[in-house]
Amino acid sequence: MPLSWNEIRDCARRFVKTWADAHDEASHAKPFWIDFFEAFGVSDRRVATFEYAVQKFHGGRGRADLFWRGMLLVEQKSRGKDLDEAFAQAQEYLEGIAQRDLPRLVIVCDFARFRLHNLDDGSRTEFSLAQLPEKIRHFAFIAGYTPRVIREQDPVNVKAAETLGRLHDALKAAGYTGHPLEVLLVRLLFCLFADDTGIFEKQSCRELIEQRTGEDGADLGARLAELFQVLNTEPARRQKNLDPQLAAFPYVNGAVFAEPLPIAQFDSAMRQALLDCCGLNWAAISPAIFGAMFQSVMDARARRNLGAHCTSEANILKLIKPLFLDELRAEFERVNGNRRTGRPRPSRSMRASARWNSPRKAVWPCCDTLTSSAACSTNSDTPLVRKTRSSSGRSAPSCRLT
Question: 20 to 30 Å CA-CA from 213: which of 27, 114, 173, 222?
Answer without folding.
Answer: 173
